[in-house]
């Protein structure tokens, strides 16, 4: 769509602002959790403030993607902002933990709509080659939020109180909503019509809820409840796949994944979730225990990782927008990350902190090179009327991969620490470890290194798989013609709307 330069700038600024808000709410609350739980007298349910938000945003993703295709991404985007802001108000006024969890569920739904339709709108307003550049700008909100969120959450909680962790969304979100009313073009609705895939939505919700419960309970020690939830999750997802083959208007049409570019881009998005997003939560603890530094200093490692992601994403987005070539970047990215993770797995205890910081920056560079690119590739692989569903599929796989692997790593870390250390040492906080005797510090450092080094090696194998997957991408370039068109030079397996003259 042809927009004026002013309107384009306003639109991109609006998308970045709301994408930042949605991403920030994943991280800003973490610092305030203990305070919130203590004031609401519900420490046992503290984790559900985060789980409810993540679960709601993930479960509704396919539904929101399909709604964007049927009623238009502009409408969904504006509704999502309004829902997110209303839920933010409710979170701050929550009188107890139950009310807060319910409000977080609604807020997660709004966040999912914001994140998903931000990317879908890019596909509607930008030519295929330009999408990579725009996507890198909008996608920069996520790594910035990872760094800024905990700091902002801590300052707000210590000064004006935890309700403002949620209310801080209102000024920026309200301004973004007003700008969106002006800047967002009215995008014609898809000509494809049909009933909402209710069976698909229900079966996916059952599978996703059971999956999150299963990995959460496994991380807390397992038990029969975790096994039952895992069985229900498998049954739910099998029923979902069956429903998608039968539905006249499926949430995630299986035929979309018959396209090789779409299938590979989706798989590479899962590599991002499994390979990096899962381990970032544990980097500060690992650094504090192994390198014996404060919590503040340990933050430099994830910051370097995120900075690498940010720079690489912007650079590769600019390169693809200029040249249209995407395959080389997608191949190189996993290799770079794999090299960094292999080096992390081989680091001896006691090396200077700058070395793991530099290595994790390399991992971030490799991941950032293709993290946003695969979304643009997926969007360019399907007809424009399916771009919302395609965007939902790519993000969904990334989210599930990150959620499951985060729980797995947490379980491995907890079990490993318990097995390698005595009961007294296993429960020490980083501050207590630093104040303990040298023998205790060395034992704890060796234990955490012995646990995390195989984790880094396993994640390197995941990125190696990503390299193999990237080799399957067709050769060619993304060209600036009709939105939804595929890269030139691609082989057969096209739908009629993808055929090029």
DSSP strand count: 0
Order of helices and strands: HHHHHHHHHHHHHHHHHHHHHHH
* Tally of separate helices: 23
Please tell me what the overall shape is: globular
Largest sheet: none
Q: Give the percentage of residues in beta strands.
A: under 5%
Whole-Å distance between the termini? 21 Å
Which secondary-structure class do the elements indicate? Answer: mainly alpha
Backbone CA Rg: 22 Å
List keywords for this structure.
0% strand; mainly alpha; 501 residues; 23 helices
What does the model show?
There is one protein chain. This protein has 501 residues and is an all-alpha fold. Helix content is 75%, strand content 0%. The longest helix is centred in the C-terminal third of the chain and has 34 residues, at 387-420. The model is unreliable at 482-501 (pLDDT under 50). Helix 1 crosses helix 8, helix 3 runs antiparallel to helix 11 and helix 14 (283-291) crosses helix 23 (438-471).
Write a compact overview of the structure shown:
With about 500 residues, the chain is an all-alpha fold. It is about 75% helix and about 0% strand. The protein has helices spanning about 5-25, 35-40, 50-60, 60-70, 75-90, 95-125, 130-140, 140-160, 165, 170-185, 200-220, 225-245, 260-275, 285-290, 295-300, 300-325, 325-345, 355-370, 375-380, 385-420, 425, 430-435, 440-470.
